[in-house]
Amino acid sequence: MKPSRKVVAVAAGALAAGLTLAVAFAHPGGMGAGPGMMHGMQHGPMSGGMQHGPMAGMHSGDEAFQADMQLVHEMLDGHEKIRRKVENLPDGIRTVTESDDPQVAKAIKAHVASMEQRLKEGREFNLFSPTIPVLFANKDKIKTTVELTEKGALFVQTSEDPEVVAALQEHAGEVSELARDGMAAMRRGMQARMMGASR
User: Fold this and answer.
1) Which stretches of 17-173 are assigned E, i.e. beta strand?
2) CB 49 within 8 A of CB 61
3) Sorting pLDDT into bands at 50, 70 and 90, what band is 6?
4) Dist. CA 108–CA 106, nearest whole Å
5) Whose CA is closest to 24, among 35, 12, 32, 13?
6) Quick one: how far is CA 61 from the chain centroid?
7) How many other CB atoms are there within 10 angstroms of residue 31's CB atom?
8) Within 13 A of 51's CA, how many CA atoms are on the CB side?
9) Of 57, 128, 167, 187, whose CA is between 20 and 30 Å from 69?
10) Rounded to 5 degrees, what angle do the CA atoms 160, 131, 178 make?
11) For residues 55 and 42, is the Cβ–Cβ distance under 8 A?
């Protein structure tokens, strides 16, 4: 059976496949692991713009936030079932994020589609990543090609701006860490961001 594929070329950027995983992959609240943590992360000002302080930029207060967080939760819970390959290109990155688990693969694809739409609309989805704001601020300098495969997604993101290329490559590393370590990576990133903001 041939993989179902959909190729989309857009002049936007940020978030590598799935684990924007997000962000990709990740977001606000308590420091405990598991569903309780994710539930705690969904409290706070969900409307009226961005938060301020250590957690500033974690979400845009839109209605899709909780649905996107659920996808992130599914991917983090199933991180051991995710395969991710990153290739740094002279002008960007090429990533492949997939899973043999149908539910995790579905979450990856849904997350990619949602993040692509957020990028087009400039609705930032971020918790601890220092690179996401850079990518959203420069989305018009990034060319993104997304190919949804049977088991996940392939991403190619390029830019003519060296600083944006560096941010793309750094972000890909952040996403890979989330795919590798799951909730533990999210907690590390959140703690690092809060420590940085308190200095």
Assistant:
1) 82-89, 92-99, 142-148, 152-159
2) yes
3) very low
4) 5
5) 13
6) 17
7) 13
8) 21
9) 167
10) 120
11) no
Coil, helix or strand at residue 168: helix
Q: How do residues 75-118 score in pLDDT, each as one tens digit?
A: 989 999 999 999 999 999 999 999 999 999 999 999 888 887 88
Ordered DSSP codes for 13-42 = ----SS-B--BBS---S-S--SHHHHHHTT
Q: What does each C-alpha distance from 2 to 81, 82, 156 come to in angstroms?
A: 22, 21, 22
As a whole number of angstroms, the distance between CA 148 and CA 93 comes to 16
Distances (CA, A) of 166 to 8, 34, 44, 101: 23, 32, 32, 32
Higher pLDDT, 53 or 98: 98
- Residues 16 and 157: beta-carbon distance below 8 Å: yes
Coil, helix or strand for 152? Answer: strand
The strands making up 142-148's β-sheet, listed across from edge to edge, are: 6-10, 142-148, 152-159, 92-99, 82-89
Task: Report the C-alpha gap between 110 and 50 in whole angstroms.
Answer: 24
3-state helix, strand, coil in the chain (%, to 5): 45, 20, 35
Residues 6+ apart with CB under 8 A from 105: 98, 99, 150, 151, 152
Domain boundaries, the chain: 6-198
Tokens 């957020």, residue? 118
